[in-house]
Amino acid sequence: MKSGNWIASVVVGASLVAGAFAASAQEQLIPSMVYRTGPYAPSGTPTADGFHDYITLLNNRDGGLNGVKLKVEECETAYNTERGVECYERLKAMGGTIFSPYSTGITYALIDRAPTDKSVIFSMAYGRASAMVGSIFPWVFNAPVTYWSGASAAIQFFAKEVGGKDKLKGKKIAHVFIDIPYGKEPNPVLQNYADELGFKLELVPVPAPGLEQKSIWLQIRQMRPDFVYLTGWGAMNAVSLKEAAAVNFPREKILGGWYTSQDSDVVGAGPAGKGFRGLTFHSVDRDLEVVKQIKAHVIDKGQASQNGKHLGEVGYMRGVLNAVFTTEALRAAQEKFGNKVMDGEQSRWGFENLNLTEDRLVKLGLKGFIQPIKLSCDNHQGDGKILIIQWEGDKWKTVSDWIAPENQKLMPLYLAGAEQYQREKNIPARSCAKS
Amino acid sequence: MLYRESGQFKTSYSADQAIFTIPQDRVLFLLLMLAAFVGVPFVATDYLYTALIIPSLCMALAALGLNILTGYCGQVSLGTGAFMGVGAVAAWNLAFRIPELNLLVVFIIAGLIAAAVGVIFGLPSLRIKGFYLAVATLAAQFFLPWLFVKVGWFTNYNASGVITVPRLELFGWTIDQPVEKYLFTLGIVSLLALAAKNMVRSNPGRQWMAIRDMDIAAEIIGIRPVIAKLSAFAVSSFYIGVAGALYLFVYLGSAEPDGFNINLSFQALFMIIIGGLGSIMGSFLGAFFILLVPIFLTRGLPLIGLDLSTAAIAHTELMVFGALIVFFLIVEPHGLARLWQLAKEKLRTWPFPY
Amino acid sequence: MAFFLEVLIGGLMAGVMYSLVALGFVLIFKASGVFNFAQGAMVLFAGLFFVGFIGLGVPIWLSVILTLVVMVLLAIAIEWLVLRHLVNQPDIILFMATIGVSFFIDGFGQSIWGSGVSQIDIGIPTDPILLLDGEILLQSFDLWAAVVAGALLIALVLFQKTRIGRALRAVADDHQAAQSVGIPLNVIWIIVWSIAGMVALVAGVMWGSKLGMQPAIVGLALKALPVLILGGFTSVPGAIVGGLIVGAGEKLAEVYIGPFFGGGIENWFAYVLALAFLLIRPQGLFGERIIERV
Hints:
With about 425 residues, chain A is α/β, with parallel strands linked by helices. Helix content of chain A is about 45%, strand content about 15%.
């Protein structure tokens, strides 16, 4: 055994690692925390592709953002909190300012670090719901909606199905959720609605990763709920739909959260997915201008991530939306601070003053993709709206108008959650009165 | 030339029993510690602390614990992650419910709790061994995180089950900068490593190794397997528990108990296989090695002209780990630590190998 | 009562699926004393290749053959690169080596075929069947799984009566004695690992049709371990019976005991069952008394 060689190669490896952290000053580094492997890869891959391709589009078509080139740096988290933290630290060291962890677990781990590190945590429609209270979580943004708004939209939709909120009384709604922080997030709001509207809420946890759900669905068959709200993730979703089909539970009665109703979920389920409905916070229109632009400027040039094989899928468009928020926040910041590379503080300012008007959305090629949204110092969620979509066996179809979550009802819950955090951590709240 | 023990005579038993019997080793070790405590803070960046050094130290401590059980006592465990979880959850509850408790006391009690749990799950080792025992420890690996998730008390009924650690304070010293966290971790890990080194050189360690090498023979020469095995489980779990507490308090900051899953167990097992079964230093080498590989693959490969996609890198990482495990088991079952020993032996005769 | 029966039958059927994975373990353990942790990864590997070939437009029958060729090549590679170098090492070293093999082929399969989820459709019906006026619901897919497992069991039992099968059993009984009567050890190992690869293909196709073919299937290896402990490491029928017990046990426990603990107990129930069993009857239900008692 040539021990010398081994030691030498370890040393070389270490020095390579150390030398790899020279971030270029002319480029804005756009961190992209992804999971293209592991049990959640089918959900994570399209999103990662969409994010990557939109940034490439800006670089190819517009030469970056007001002359500042953008550089996507991917880091594989495998949806694992510990690796996510490592990715965050690495991307931060390289000059990243805005982080989208794509995992509620990682988001929770980063929330504490954000203020000291001056990093913006942008958890688009996931993560800690109460982090929308900007006065207590200045560094965390969760536009356009939270899991709590999702639960609210779901209840409104169920109410509409039965013909009014008062009709929900005495009904039974089962929440089937994956037993990790992400899955548990909507529970308080659902419970609140159950108390208010008088329906019976059954909480049915599915142990992660949720490959074995036979007993769950046998129980649901026995329970005979009027609706099932499904908060699944990755591999679990297709299994849920298949098992539901196997026990003859109508898929039309199942409503999935937005991370439960992506293309990979229903494709894996095959015919069992037909009729399944889900929430989304952006439209599923595949003819958007931005899709054509990505096709022309990125895919046809052979620069797309994985050749754009997921182009137009729900997950892909979600990645695009994430990139839109990120870059538009940077653009807003540039308007104030000048067209150069933004640092953490400036990125934060950009997010807080982000205003995506109808005109702006049209200009971005996103007409009708989302509703106009405006963030502010005390509202880091904006008031995003939600659509219901249904899987027709080969494509998603929008089956509702934009539903506005009952934010006035959720606000006390948000505040209570945020204040609890404030107490636990003993941090001061900043005043939002001025801006 | 430089590293030679000829002419050095030991004139007392205590000299013969020292950890480092020759002055060169002592000097080298002192330099190493000096570098770790004084040198590293001068050169390391925040990134290196938070992404590499601190997690490596935490995992090294866990690997050390596992090494006591697997490397020294011969009992395979796939429950390392769960025992780290026990330590972490216990420490969090102690710190949260009794805020006036000193941080060190918190860690010690958390370690003791982990040790107690370890002994309970170690009981099957009295009847079974080998991979049968590995399966038994898997029971702990699946049961304990489930328990932490299900019993709301463990996470103070937090709706999403995420626990967030309070500010770290020790005798009025607020530990929040990466350097401070590093020094704090290094202090604890060094102390425990020293204790482990002495333990495996003295009576308990020898009992464990006797059990490992041949349990019946050990029993015949008067070692009680019950005591030896359970003490190995207890000590090992104590170390792993403290490692888990450090992992949560110093490295992650907040975590879901479910995160202490089987991946951590495998990681720790790989660390000791690659680092060296039955070697204290091997645990450290293995931990640094295992955590360096992914970073090397993502940061290092592009520098030498290989630009793989993120997914390809992740897959390559799995393959590299798999291949390394097989490679080390076949070629050098004593791992990196053995390579270090070989290097030392070569050094003895260098530059005139006759 | 009807619900109890429904859960029981559902559990037994789920258990059959575990048995499919466990069978591969038993084959290898019997012939070489190696506890092959990589069996779960082999299931994924075979499934990925099968789906991958179909995705390339290859007809199903040819995909099966091609995948089998791949699995034989894999067996040869494992024998050459790993097993051959670890002869006479302690069992536990071999066990850890197979963990390494497991990681390797997991990464290898995914780097060829990607980590996406793909649908396998080989024409197994999935409609529910209702019995007793709709009181009890059966899944036709599960029945097919039981048929497949049964066929596999018969094939394996018959195979043991053949010349090669006898050689396998001879090797299993005593390596040295088998070698001295002229049975080539290395060839036998390649054959055994190839057969385990074929069993993995069957398991991969069945699990893939059930869940969609995806990387998460690797985790199944962990579910097969308690099955083995219950059934015994050396018994082919034991793997089936062990699977049935684990399947039925964990489903019944989940439905009837789970609610008291907030659900989700099936993740560890099988292990605790196996642990209890280990203390009482370490060799399993059908296993030979080879376990070393301490």
